[in-house]
Amino acid sequence: MKKELYILKVVVWCVLISFVCPSCSDWLDVKPKTEEEAESLFSTEEGFKSALAGAYIALCEPDLYGKELTFGMIGVLGQEWARDQGPVGVSQSAYNNFLYYRYEEVVTKPIVEAVWTKMYKTVANVNTLIEYADLKKDVLTGNNYEIIKGEAIALRAFIHFDLLRLFADYNFTDSVLSIPYVKSSKPAITPQFSTKVVIRLLIEDLNDALELLEKDPIYTGQDVSGIDNGYLVNRNFHLNYYAVQGLKARVYTYAGKMKEAYDAARIVIEAQKNADICPWVNKSDVNATNTALRDRTFSSEHLFALNTTKLIENIKGYFKETLSPLKSRIAPKTAADCLYVTGDYRGLFFESDNGAENVMSKFWQMDNQVVGGEIIRPKRNRMPVLRISEMFYIAAEYLKTIEPQGALDMLNEVRRHRGLVEELTNTDPIAIQNEILKEYQREFLGEGQLFYYHKRMGTSRIDVANAVYKLPMPDDEIDLGQRN
Question: What whole-number distance in Å separates Cα of residue 170 and Cα of residue 384?
């Protein structure tokens, strides 16, 4: 066995960083291999910014949220894609095996192991940044200590949460171990914890991050357009204050603590209402006559999105440049039981391509357009991770039994901003939960959330197979880490 694959034995000073220009589009990887090099990196504020940017970039890789943890492996596990279409329909392909939850096959195992390894490697890098933020606090100007450290702690929680949702049973008893929660950059074996303990550690990290991010300009309302070369603009590409509140709501929902989830979601909902945080997408941006300029991911509504600059490469063979693209398992349009009813904006993003109909175009990447002599840049390179709409779904799920009409109000608010005139009226809690499921299927198609929804709800069978919700840890992790 190759010990270098054992993630908790990685050289923790290998911090993936990038030297960033103001547009955050060009990066130079710098990988310090010793404590001396780390000291040098974190001796300047630019070093901290680059290290934090590098963590976000790592999450954009195809092995993670650039593909596998959004429309790829997780999309297949959530049964989002038709089983006879595209890469899913190729017999013995990785996605065909994922369709039936065959994690140990020779074609699936490397994909699963890469998720574990690269996620924990990013955790190690983030932990190094957190430790140096305190050691080198004096080099950080303005509010950058609080903002950078707050984001890093939130990233640690974000990564661990998805590792928990992937590699642990949905079981909250003390005796069932889940994953290691690593809070140190030092090369040591971190013990596994129960899911209940991991949830506690997640909430502790999120609360610590929120306290620090009270200096976040998205929360304070500070005008930062001319400050720090634009470093603090475009906060929805960072785990900002409201994104962390949204993540907290998601964690509490997974833990079944719906009142706490509602309280966190409500903070974000009120911020949208009172401070125009993550406003609803403008209809004219969705159905623009020039289709290249349509806002296909409803970018104004992103609490947190990854700036995936290679998204155009990642979708090739899946939604572009292929005669056999991935197709939605549930017919998107025209069928009696279609996913999108007439008028739903989301139904606009199923188009024809290479002779194939109903190809999901949400992630299509369009070129710049010249309009009236002016160059207009389409809203591209965005992989949504947290949306404002999810906060309304969480609120509705909490309210469905204690205030059913309030739950419907939450769902109808989203529906109105999706172009749907007809309001939901059935106050039966089961009917409300069914509508929430439909919204997850519509809203998050290709974004990786449906699998986790079914895991949380205990769905035993999704479409063609009995679901297996716990992915196996890498063999080396089990052997060398003595994992259960």
Answer: 25
